[in-house]
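JOB MANIFEST
job_type = single_chain_structure
chain_count = 1
residues = 274
[input]
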Amino acid sequence: MKKYKPIRAPVSYYGGKANLVSTILKLIPDHKIYTESFFGSGVVFFAKKPVESEVINDKNDLIINFYEQCISNFDELKLKIESTLFSRSTYTVAMSIWRMPHLFNKIQQAWAFYVACNQGFSSHIGSWGMDKYGKRVKAFMNKKLRFDESLLKRLEHTNIESAEACKVIKAYDIEGDSFHYVDPPYVDTNCGHYEGYTIADYKRLLDTLSEIKGKFLLSSFPTDILDEYIQKNGWYSIQLTKTKTAAKAKLGEPRTAKKIEVLTANYPISLDDL
């Protein structure tokens, strides 16, 4: 069998796991059915080897529309992206579409999502990533070059859902065959992509993961709630310390500010696996 060549995710997304993807890949068990119920930029999906059945899901309509347009109108979207400059005015137009998507067609919405993510400061949507040294311009140019047929090929046999995450996990859960990668939003924060993801939502997700027959790997912050579920269900977890992506943006915070990521699974994982 031909070896799979991983591709880079087409968008950069705040809260995405680009800095953890190599670690996550080492912890993924064999499976035939794959779900990613909080898809976002999909860095894990694009990096992992395809399997028989794959499901990507997100409740944000602009996210799902982007990937749908990548499949159904790839050439038109590619031309529009290729002609896009890295500029504040471009970003302003994209944000206007982002805020009032119902006034624009599906291609325009997909383009706006691409620009909003890839030209935003530290991948935050809402603030343009001004660059004094030209690094952001070069990075955007490289992203445009990578928007090619490999993206279409990776997506064309994928099931695309736009539903509540717990419903998707339950619907595609089969013992021995399913693996669910779960990367929910940070609780009670607004990252520009998700709003209003509450503690109740998080508990509902953990309850769902407690009941499934397949395997899951959950990415999250450390919390007392998570610790409670780990103890109650006998789950496995490891903690990783990473540098904050947007550390430089916060007043008074050192450039090397750290955050702790917790990876939790219902199958054995350990730091020795990494």
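[summary]
DSSP finds eleven helices and seven strands in the chain.
The first strand starts at residue 33 and ends at 36.
exit_status = 0
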